[in-house]
Amino acid sequence: QVQLVESGGGLVQAGGSLRLSCAASGRTFSNYAMGWLRQAPGKERAFVASISWRGESTYYANSVKGRFTISRDNTKNTVYLQMNSLKPEDTAVYYCAGDESVISTKAAYWGQGTQVTVSS
């Protein structure tokens, strides 16, 4: 079992930045691919970014490419999402996810979510 706890959400103006963190505990963190998904009001949960277990491969949704950066520190059991040039359409609850395979809406482990609100 892996427990995930997100932090770093909040309210920011358009064009601003936030960094989300996800602290993992339980099974060996470095064995898992990690990622972030988000869910806006009235919409389905959607993939944002993921990173392989060693951190050598990263993947991004087209909507965030060039603005968001995912990274991980396996010595701290933590994955990060640096979000720059934020837009109002980035407003959502952001969820950290972990899986032995692919990060998707069917990931095995989830955090409780952290709210990100971008004002125009």
Shape: globular
Helix content: under 10%
Largest sheet: 7 strands, mixed
Strand content: over 45%
The number of helices is 0
Order of helices and strands: EEEEEEEEEEE
Q: List unreliable stretches of 5+ residues.
A: none
Radius of gyration: 13 Å
Termini, distance in Å? 40 Å
Instruction: Give the mean pLDDT.
Output: 95
In total, how many beta strands? Answer: 11
Question: Helix/strand-derived class?
Answer: mainly beta
Describe the SSE topology.
Blueprint: E1 2-7, E2 10-13, E3 18-26, E4 33-39, E5 46-51, E6 58-60, E7 68-73, E8 78-83, E9 92-99, E10 109-110, E11 114-119
Parallel strand pairs: 2-11
Antiparallel strand pairs: 1-3, 3-8, 4-5, 4-9, 5-6, 7-8, 9-10, 9-11
Q: Can you put this structure into words, describing what you see?
A:
The chain is mainly beta and 120 residues long. It is built from no helices and eleven strands. Strands 2, 4, 5, 6, 9, 10 and 11 form a seven-stranded mixed β-sheet that branches. Strands 1-3-8-7 form a four-stranded antiparallel β-sheet, with no helix packed on it. A hairpin with a 6-residue loop joins strand 4 and strand 5. The radius of gyration is 13 Å and the shape is globular. The chain starts with a strand and ends with a strand. The relative contact order is 0.32.
